[in-house]
Amino acid sequence: MATQTHAKEGPQILDGCIGCVDCVDLCPGDVLAMDAKTNKAVVVYLDECWYCGVCRMDCPVDVVRFEFPVTMTKL
Amino acid sequence: MNVNRIKADVAIVGGGLAGLNSALGAVEAGARVVVMDKAKIERSGAIAGGVDHCMAYLNQGEPWDTREVYLAFVAKAAFGAVDLTVHERIFCDELEAAIDRMAGIGCPLHDPVNGEYYRTRSFGQPGPYWVNFDGKNLKPLLARAVRQAGCRVLDFVTTTNLFVHEGRVQGAAGYHIRDGSYWVVESPAVVVATGNTNRLFETPSGMPFNTWLCPYDTGAAQAMAYRAGATLANMEYVRMTLVPRGFSAPGLNAFAGEGATFINALGESYMTRYHELGDKAPRNSLVYGALMEVREGRGPLFLDCTRIPKENMAILKGTLGTDKDTLPDFFRQKGIDIGVDPFEVEVSEGMQTGPLEIVGSGVKIDAQCMSNVEGLFASGDCADQMKVVHMALTGGYAAGREAAAFAARQPSDAPDERAVLAEQQRLVAPLQRASGWHYGEVETVLRKIMKEYVGPMRSEVGLQTAQKKLGLLREDLDRLKAENPHELMRCLETAELLTVGEIMAAAALARKESRFIPYHYRLDFPDQDDAHWGGQILVSEQDGQISTRFQALDGDRA
Questions:
Q1: Could you write out the DSSP letters of every residue in B129-167?
Q2: Read out DSSP for B102-124?
Q3: What is the four-CA torsion angle of B279, B212, B236, B525, rounded to 10 degrees?
Q4: What is d(CA A60, CA B34) in angstroms, rounded to the nearest whole number?
Q5: Is B483 within the bounds of a domain?
Q6: What single-letter DSSP state applies at residue B218?
Q7: From the DSSP assignment, how many helices (H) and strands (E) are in chain B?
Q8: Is the domain of B227 the same as that of B293?
């Protein structure tokens, strides 16, 4: 079930990721991983995201954004 | 297969706020300490992303600001769940040192600029007991203190079981959620500190990880301690809160504390119908009021912040993201400006945790934070007498210190080799199956059963129905399939959730009255009956079955 996602929701890792691994290691739910080819962080378990924002607050180059799904914003 | 072994005096299971305070308590008492956490301790657990409030009385001169008035409040509000002797010992006796410790690690409870405490009142308190502070970086600061103090930290190692022989704990087993390596910590004392249980009840949004508290906290300690022979208490209470519709985020305390008003679809401020304190009522009354208003056809419900004074609104807006970093993003993306329009709220999913901010649910502890299993201590939200930040800081530290004292007094033997290998075999089973269920399929059914039969409106027939269904669902645990160590972690969490669910149903069935309505609301016994039920339902394993009994508590002492 572990699949890399390019969803329009959840944490968005924008261009500029330096591959420092901080967000991958600090996520309390182990939701992210490093993409071996690009050496950038990717979301692999989007369904398990708590939307806690740790990946964003500890990103040293500020390239993480949050997009809430319609399940949350249109309810 | 390889077994990584570490010898220690105290093993800490779970490196959240309580666990790291326990680690400090133990290491400062001279113990060799190992901390095991499924994530990295800098950002793990319920306050991974920050926290903004802590309860305390401060003796600053007001009549309500004393230990005596605080204890009288606790005795009355938490009657039937709180053990006052334990509470006084692990909270009141530890409070001053805990406040100093917070300042010492660089996360003071006072305003670092003017030195004053910013205090607010909500949830039935006799005075403003909430101390608001900037706890955005509390976890990384505490983690640094723990590492600098010499604790050994096993990041990404989730604990799967305790080793117990003849009623004595001997250590804990776990595995690495990325590389799958197997770890055994041999220690005469173990402090479990894995928090409350979330992901157990269906959520309003249908997204199981969209939960008020941490969805990675799944009752590991409660399930492990139960298997190890520990007694659990206060497990019947299903706690809920009010959240912005769509996002099960914390923050209600901040809104209520700054003076927000609940209104129904008719624009009426309705809470005085349900409690004399109105919008400052205890959280369970706020939830009850919401359930009743909707039932009477006066929903949907809203939280009106528009009449909050300008100065307080500035503080509220400025700190909105301290408890939940993404809450301001959510409001923005949903088009909500809390200063302009009331925003819709809903009753959150249920969870296993103490019924109030001042009393817990989980492993029953004595005044030394120890369970009935020798050497097994509990800390934080998985203990029956601890709850949220203020008790993680106080009782959490005490649990570690007492565990260190116990370990120095009573060394234990290493766990039996057969038990070590048997645990390794047990836990990897979902990885070895050729095919089977994804954990999410079983959990979805579990959450529906819990919501429908063990939720806020309960009855004997419903709870017995839940027990039957949960018993059948247990068979499916042996069919779970994991593709990798990460998914194996989730499969083990599913098993923990099911165990906690079964215990909750049994405890709820045993309490034939209602208490902390709607957290334990028996439709067939709708009244509170202090004369017969002023105490705890104790749960333990007897001959492989869940056994319950009632034990009275002394509630008049304060």
A1: -EEE---TTHHHHHHHHHHHTT-EEETTEEEEEEEEETT
A2: HHHTT--SS-TTT---EEE--TT
A3: 40
A4: 29
A5: no
A6: B
A7: 16, 24
A8: no
What single letter denotes the amino acid at residue B254?
A: A
Question: What pLDDT, in 10s, does the model give residues B89-114?
Answer: 999 999 999 999 999 999 999 999 99
Whether the model pTM is above 0.80: yes
H or E element: which one contains B70? Answer: helix B67-77
Angstrom CA distances, B199 to B90, B210, B228, stand at 29, 9, 23
Share in percent of chain A as helix, strand, coil (round to 5): 20, 20, 60
The 10s digit of each residue's pLDDT in B478-530 is 999 999 999 999 999 999 999 999 999 999 999 999 999 999 999 999 999 99
User: Distance between CA B347 and CA B457 in Å, rounded?
Assistant: 13
Considering the four listed CATH numbers 3.40.980.10, 1.20.59.10, 3.30.70.20, 1.10.260.40, the one that applies to the domain covering A10-73 is 3.30.70.20
Indicate whether B447 belongs to any domain.
Answer: no
Residue A68 to residue B484, Cβ atoms within 8 A? no
State the best of B156, B178, B329 to mutate against chain A, taking most chain A CBs within 10 Å: B329
CB atoms within 10 A of CB B512: 13
Look up residue A59 and give its amino acid.
C
Chain B residues in contact with A67 (beta carbon < 8 A): 333
Cα A16 to its chain centre, rounded Å, is 14
Identity of the residue numbered B68: E
Helices (H), B454-484: 460-474
Q: Which residues of B touch A56 (CB under 8 A)?
A: 325-326
Instruction: Give B141's contacts (C-beta < 8 A, 6+ positions apart).
Output: B105, B106, B107
Pairing type for strands B351-352 and B238-239 reads: antiparallel
Identity of the residue numbered B269: S
